[in-house]
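A favour, since you know our structure tokens better than I do. Just paste the record in under my message, thanks.
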Amino acid sequence: MKITSVNNSLIEEILSLKETKMQKEKQSYIIEGIKMVNLALEKQVVETILVEKNLFEKYKHFLNVIEISDNVSKKLSDLKTNQGIFAVCKMQQKEDLDGNYLILDGIQDPGNLGTLIRSAFAFEFKNVICSNNCVSFYNPKVLRATQSNHFDLNLRNEDLSFFLDKLKQKNIIVVGTLLKEESNSLEKIKVNRIALILGNEGQGISKEISKKIDLNIKIKTNPDLESLNVAIAGSILMKDIYSMN
């Protein structure tokens, strides 16, 4: 099968998977690039592969491989220059994994979410749980920023208030970063598992969720610095917690 029209119904359906609503409805999302597609094949989450002619021979032995023209490739891609390969992937349904939790309350910037996912992988925060008003895990910019590390983590959207109550029942300490509250040292944490909460770029952690925090911590910085980007702050805190263990 070869598709040469950008108005093809299948292409239009695949393009719709860039929208959060359709991702949730179809439980699928689109990725692009040789590295990411190859990793998705290893993880066995690929439903359909779309490739230009120069790569078709390499991938034709997989099921559901479609050859596409250059103009279709440009339509599917979010990049000025693309590698001519895309895949539709099914979302992985994972239960909670052993390890710490990164809890994200209202993160809106795709680059921030992608960076935090990558850092979560680096520092073994194996569960990344977002509030329902976060940017999608499967936003193309988020996926690029993750550098494919999203395949190895438990990524879920949850009602954070209810979810944090469940974590507390498991004796998991909820750690937050409230600027106006008294802060403590990370060294006070003497537990095996931690849930680190980070808030929205502009508003911080919501009032409802801030009430769930057991321990408030701060990062020591130059006193003349107003604030750190949430992705940088979160990465530093995850690294510090990882180093303690």
The mean pLDDT is 92. The domain at 101-244 is CATH 3.40.1280.10 (Alpha/beta knot). Residues 162 and 174 are 13 Å apart (CA to CA).
